[in-house]
Amino acid sequence: MFTNSKLAKSVRLACAFGAVSTISFSGAVAAQEAEEAADTVEKIEVTGSRIRRTDIEGANPVTVMSRVDIEKFGITSIGDVLQAIPSAGSAINTNNNNGGNGTTTINIRGIGSNRTLVLVNGKRWAPGLTGSVDLNNIPASIIERIEVLKDGASAVYGSDAVAGVVNIITRQDFEGVHASGYIGQYDEGDGNKEQWDVGFGAANDKGNVYFNVSYVEEEATLAGDRAISAVPVFGTPEGFGGSSAPPQGRFWTFDQAGTSFSEQGDSAGGLEPWVEPDSRFNFAPFNYLSTPQERTNIYSQARYELTDNLSVNVTGFYGNRKSEQALAPTPLFIGTAFGDSGFTLSADNQYNPYGVDISTDQSVLDADPNARELFLFGRRMMEAGFRSFKQNVDQFQFNGGFDGVLEFADREFYWDANYTYADITQNQLTDGLLNMNRVALAIGDPANCTGDCTPLNLFGGSTALGEGTITQEMLDYITFTAQDEQSTSLESYSANISGEVLELPAGYLAFAAGYEKRWQEGYDQPDAIIAAGITSGNARQPTEGSFSVEEAYLELAIPLLSDLEFVEQLDLELATRYSDYSNFGDTTNSKVGLKWRVNDDLIIRGTWSEAFRAPSLDELFSGNSDSFAPLTDPCNGGAAANPDLPGCAGIPATYEQPNSQIRTTVGGNANLQAEEAESFTYGFVYSPEQVDGLSITFDVFDIEVDNAVSTVGAQTILNACAETGVNLCSLITRGAGGNVVDLFNGAVNLGGQTTSGFDYNVAYNFETDYGDFRVNWDGTYVDERTTIVIDPVTNTTAEFNDAGLAGDRDVVPRIRTNLAVTWSYEDFTANWLVRFIGHTTELCSIDGDVLDQQLCSDPSLEVGGTSYNELDDMAYHDVSLGYAVNDNLRITLGVNNLFDTDPEVSYSTFANSFDPSMYEIPGQFFYTRLNVNF
User: Fold this and answer.
1) Residue 341, Cβ neighbours under 10 Å: how many?
2) Is 634:351 a contact under the CB 8 Å cutoff?
């Protein structure tokens, strides 16, 4: 892309120095050089526009990260690096164990990772079924720089470019051999990470070729090895927040007179009283805190000039990821509390201490007046070992095409024609699950337990992993290994042309136009037992579907004024794109941008754009599946305890929420429409000539997403029904005892999101007798991030502003900044990076009484009241020191989280008492890196 022009050199210099900043290095000096060299500089394409131009500064706010910047973070995944930039919101990563799948995504502006488009060299990178791109599969060693557009860009790139675009630019024209090795681990001696890569490149006047192989291995850390994650809720009494499925079993039954019996198994195979919370099981130590991965990637690219005006280019990528998540041994839950039927612990079962039938079925209860209702049974199957979820993912992507220059009417027009094919296939093995049909037979009438069936002993278990009263023969009968397969593919053809068509008084009118045809398809085939719904884990139905789209776009850059006082240059940028989808119809999205270069020091810029997002394959076609979200039923205690909540009417006073996790059904919707969005950004770039090396940028953003594809939210459904007695109540199914049997929380076009705030960057380069310094301060302030929920029953609208709040897997600090200081002197380089996360507030209802007073920073003074907890401001400090041994070898030593700062304790997060989507796992991380070039 860049040649040996003065402009290209200025870009390379800024990137090499490690500026994590907006492209404001094209200020006074670079802009002047660019104009002086305008006749000789090669026109380049910058993320956010298809028009090639000599001035790299457009109306769009773009952040650039160089290869040097990436290495400053001292981590192995480019996804983790991008999640650390201030404009990024909470997103899944490898520290997500329960609910994770080995991927790491980027979520610009925090409005959803599938609303950020990911490109590699300007071409769409294949997403998974959910529409999000796994950044783990893009090796850091192939990257020259990353351009992050923080603006809507559907008019230029199409679907998904709602909050922004991440464009990863690979090494170009590299000659020689480069290799690097990286090793690191936590001060606790765990979480080892290794990265090894080697690249080869050759280039001449006709073309270039580059080949790279990289390997990454990341070992796990266990939740039990950190104090904050070794218990279900940090800081609470022993047993609090634990599972109601202990290894000895919990038995909550009712006799036919309505008397409740809450008991647990004892060590001798009998029963003893259940005691809250002492009897609950601490499952936390058995979970991963950070998950293991092994990634192997092969990347190659080549370009060759067939003639002076025609070139061919090809890119090939293959990546394999092996990843795993591990949870505590599976809990076996049975009972009418979950809407179950068909389960009877037979009186004739040799291990049954009751001596009578314990059943979920009314017919059994009617047949024997001594039989008891099995309201809730929970047992931790320690004998079966961990629940292990292992992914083996293969990703292949090929890009090929031609590009060249057409000369017409004494003008040059740049064109390209491209083909892309990508395929992602994932196989997952899950161990530790139970076949519930076989469980029913094994605890039922022994006369029906024939053949391989072995009567099951659910009493007198052990807290030691792999030990207990369930024999291997029993396990062989009731357990199974699930084998799931997922696949997605992307295929596209595209053609683009750009150039200057007309000379106006203020400059040349330039354009870009193009056409694209794209196909996407995918499927998810769960194991047959999971699809049949007879698993102890989450059941789900198969997913399969496809869609295609044809698109055409036009982009114009119109110079309006130039060479006037206070108007060195005024340009208008226009773009529009028409998209026709096979499944929901067509949409047209446009963009208007204005760039006003006041003088050599100051640029004022602004854009207004429309954007859209087509529903993903998963949102459209996924079958119904189970989820067990941690929820609080507002009707706990029935109508008597909640007289002000009409939705609790008719629920008996004896109702007590039996488990913190409530069965929720989620699924796709083939009738979904596209999301629509509008974004508005405006700001300035200031590089004063009087202060050499100083650059300041400031940009305001405002994004509104309508017709959003989302779920209403399980907790929102519960709360709305309770508060109104009407709204969303049809989505809730309760049992006779008042317990929630099922809650439907499927995908709908309902409501939207808005977010607003501003980004800022201050970068300053200066030289001293003691070395050269680069100071870079990059930040984002979130003024508003509102979720808009429309009630489909009453058509009323509710808005919830999450700015400054924290909740499960979603932290929205108002302020997030990175301050980077780089020092370079002779053969030494030192980096200091401060990552600041502003304070947030979360709901913190622990038990409405004593624990609220002890743990929540703003407790309620009333029993049952709402308490809050503040997560304070905090910062991570990362440092590194590099030494160039010679021209070919460089050694870097670094420490991430130098001051061993612990994550902020959160009581609303799902696990580990902190949110891994925003905070790091505890501990100092030490690493060393070797870079070799020949």
Assistant:
1) 12
2) no
* 901 SS3 class: coil
Give yes or no for residue 293 having a pLDDT over 90.
Answer: yes
Residue type for position 264: Q
Q: pLDDT tens digit string along 587-600? A: 999 999 999 999 99
pLDDT surpassing 60 at residue 30 = no
CA distance 816 to 760: 11
* Residue-wise pLDDT tens digits, 122-149: 999 999 999 999 999 899 999 999 999 9
Domain 6-220+291-325+391-427+486-623+669-711+746-838+873-933 indexed as CATH 3.40.50.150: no
In the three-class reduction of DSSP (H, G, I as helix; E, B as strand; rest coil), residue 455 is classed as coil
pLDDT in tens, 77-106: 999 999 999 999 999 999 999 989 999 999
In whole angstroms, give the CA distance from residue 576 to residue 580.
Answer: 14
Q: Which residues on adjacent β-strands are paired with residue 26? A: none
Dihedral sign, Cα of residue 126, residue 128, residue 133, residue 134 = negative
For 818, the enclosing helix (H) or strand (E) is strand 815-825
List strand residue ranges (DSSP E) for 631-734, in order. 661-666, 675-686, 694-706, 709-710, 732-734
* pLDDT for the residue numbered 40: 45
Across the range 407-421, mean pLDDT stands at 93
| Segment among 134-138, 824-828, 859-863, 918-922 with least mean pLDDT | 859-863
CA torsion 616-618-619-623 (nearest 10°) is 160
Q: Residue range 877-897: average pLDDT?
A: 96
Tokens of 259: 């008397």
Q: Taking 50 as the threshold, does the pLDDT of residue 4 lie above it?
A: no
* pLDDT value for 56: 65
pLDDT score recorded for residue 261:
93
Query: Is the Cβ–Cβ distance between 934 and 888 less than 8 Å?
Result: yes
Angle between helices 28-36 and 6-17 (to 10 degrees): 150
Residue 160: helix, strand or coil by DSSP? coil
Distance CA 351, CA 349 (A): 5
SS (H, E, C) 523-546: EEECCHHHHCCCECCCCECCEEEE
Going by the DSSP 8-state scheme, the letter that residue 88 receives in this structure is B
Q: Tokens 């990175």 map to which residue? A: 818
User: What is the arithmetic mean of pLDDT over 218-230?
Assistant: 96
In angstroms and rounded to an integer, the radius of gyration of the C-alpha atoms of the chain is 30
Q: How far is it, in rounded angstroms, from Cα 908 to Cα 894?
A: 33
Threshold 0.90, pTM exceeds:
no
Q: Which of 891, 779, 910 is nearest to 834 (CA)?
A: 779
C-alpha atoms less than 13 angstroms from C-alpha of 364 in its C-beta half-sphere: 20
Contact 158, 141 (CB under 8 A): no
Going by pLDDT thresholds of 50, 70 and 90, the confidence category of residue 29 is: very low
Residue 689, C-beta contacts closer than 8 angstroms, at least 6 positions apart: 28, 600, 601
What whole-number distance in Å separates Cα of residue 474 and Cα of residue 817?
Answer: 55
| Residue type, position 318, single letter | Y
* Domain spans, the chain: 6-220+291-325+391-427+486-623+669-711+746-838+873-933
Task: Specify the amino acid at residue 595.
Answer: K
Helices (H) and strands (E) in the chain, counts: 13, 48
First to last CA, the chain: 23
Half-sphere exposure of 658 (CA within 13 A, CB side): 29
Helix (H) or strand (E) holding 273: strand 271-273
Confidence of residue 792 (pLDDT cuts 50, 70, 90): low
d(CA 199, CA 220): 28
User: Would you place residue 848 in the very low, low, confident or very high pLDDT band (cuts 50, 70, 90)?
Assistant: low
Task: State CA 833 to chain mean position distance.
Answer: 23
The amino acid that residue 605 corresponds to is R
CA distance 874 to 838: 7
Q: What is the rounded distance in angstroms from the CA atom of residue 484 to the CA atom of residue 542?
A: 10
